[in-house]
Fold this sequence. Notes:
Layout: H1 3-10, E1 18-22, H2 27-38, E2 42-47, H3 50-64, E3 68-72, H4 78-92, E4 97-100, H5 115-143, E5 145-150, H6 164-184, E6 189-196, H7 201-209, H8 211-219, H9 229-240, E7 252-255
Parallel strand pairs: 1-2, 1-4, 2-3, 4-5, 5-6, 6-7
Amino acid sequence: xxxxxxxxxxxxxxxDKVAIITGAGQGIGQGIAFALAARGAKVVVVGxxxxxCQATCKSIEQRFSTxxxxxxxxxxxxxxxxxxxxxxxxxxxxxxILVNNAVATSIxxxxxxxxxxxxxxxxxxxxxxLRLMQLCYPYLKQQGGSIINMASTAAKRWDMANYGVYAAExxxxxxxxxAAASEWGADNIRANNxxxxxxxxxxxxxxKHRPEEAAEFVKGIxxxxxxxxxxxxxxxxxxxxxxxxxxxxxxxxxxxxxQAYMS
Length: 263
């Protein structure tokens, strides 16, 4: 088969599938949105800032000529999540892919953690993840679907000092994902976690404020680089949502250049 045919088939594996991606106005979410759109998916770009969501949609439409919807939403708000689902189904009729990428956290010593910041982190993280999975379930089970949730290798650090809250919220998401894979597998719904290192605005900000720790962090990556949001993270997610990955579910997969040991 000519290479051009192979490329054409690969880039249409998600043709007309409908994907909802939270936190897609920039960074990893945006990279995933680009990669799914490249394979033909219609993309609902959800984020706190409408202008960023609109910019992502404009780039998708220019690069891939696929349909998009930009939606401003605070994922900690249950009514806001309901509106996202309602508006998506109203325009695109169904939902095939859910990517829970939005994040909020509180980094620092446990003794200094404040209730409001920790509660907000869990509302944006595991609580929003659970709610969106519940809201999308009736549509995902109609013809089978894929859930991708964002976890982290923070809980795999030998020294978790200052990252306890972040690790806790991300490991809660891993548990919810595993439960979804177990409970909804009979409905042909797959659920997986990815644990990425990506050159996102959030990571750049962290590296700027913690340069020594960041240098050691990169040194600990066997491939000696931080991943690209689209070509490294997004394209892997696209494959994970595609038919060639139809037997993969309930897994936590580190996309981190070989840094973490996933036991």
